[in-house]
Automatic annotation (TrEMBL):
This is Class I SAM-dependent methyltransferase. It holds the Pfam family Methyltransf_25. GO terms for molecular function: methyltransferase activity. The keyword Magnesium does not apply. It comes from Aeromicrobium halocynthiae.
Length: 248
């Protein structure tokens, strides 16, 4: 999660608050969800320049902490990891879990990232991970958010963005819609989740950047060495991870 524009963001945060109690259960029913997070986090950490001491990482749109767990597993229990999300309900779920001493969670919207960084870190982080973030950002603010993330990573550091990108592919759009209406929404109803957030999920993915559009945003932010991977199974060609480097 991690919306930006205040009215849109507050409304969306409230929807995620309502969904938070069943969120982990529903994601556990998605084949490959956790593997994709782990793969992206591991690939990010492997790209980071070797430094003396623990790594410092952002987990932007951390939700209930599933992506944070993937970063801990990849970077080690000594890592300094700051998870940021706009949903109090999701953060409540995250904070209730067992974490190493270096893991913290902050309630904030995306436009507040520079202020959050000034309060929580002594300098830029080594890397940043954002899973399922950008589709929750209004299109007109996405360049600003990408640039802000890049600015909070040290020169030579990397960012990883993971999300669904189906725009421009009729097959991917059709598969995505079939999964949302035939599987995800019925499951949300069955486990007494918040169906409205999953209807939003369907729509937000259809409206999310295409790969080419996000690639161009990363380039405009000055990031280089941009590379893409896609998940396997039903998510092939739908769920993508992009890694990009801030030049040294």
């Amino acid at each position: 999660m991690f919306p930006v524009e205040p009215t849109h963001g507050a409304r969306l945060a409230d929807e995620f608050d309502r969904a938070s109690g069943r969120y982990d259960l529903l994601t556990s029913l998605n084949p490959g969800y956790h593997d994709a997070l782990r793969d992206a986090a591991k690939a990010l950490v492997l790209r980071l320049p070797r430094i003396d001491g623990p790594l410092t990482l952002w987990d932007l749109g951390c939700g209930s902490g599933l992506s944070t767990r993937a970063l801990v597993d990849a970077a080690g229990v000594d890592a300094r990891i700051v998870g940021v999300d706009a949903s109090d309900g999701m953060l409540e779920q995250a904070r209730a879990k067992d974490w190493p001493a270096g893991v913290d969670f902050v309630h904030a919207f995306a436009q507040e990232l520079p202020d959050v960084a000034a309060r929580t870190l002594d300098g830029p982080a080594d890397g940043a991970f954002a899973a399922y973030l950008m589709r929750n950002v209004p299109e007109e603010q996405r360049d600003e958010v990408v640039a802000s993330i890049a600015a909070q990573v040290r020169p030579g550091g990397w960012i990883a963005l993971q999300d669904y990108h189906v725009k421009g592919s009729k097959r991917a759009e059709a598969t995505w819609s079939a999964v949302c209406w035939g599987v995800v929404t019925p499951l949300a109803l069955a486990v007494r989740g918040n169906p409205s957030i999953y209807r939003y999920l369907w729509r937000s993915v259809l409206e999310n950047d295409s790969r080419d559009e996000l690639h161009a945003r990363l380039e405009r932010a000055g990031l280089t060495d941009i590379s893409w991977t896609t998940a396997g199974g039903w998510q092939r060609g739908i769920l993508h991870t992009v890694h990009a480097r801030r030049p040294a």
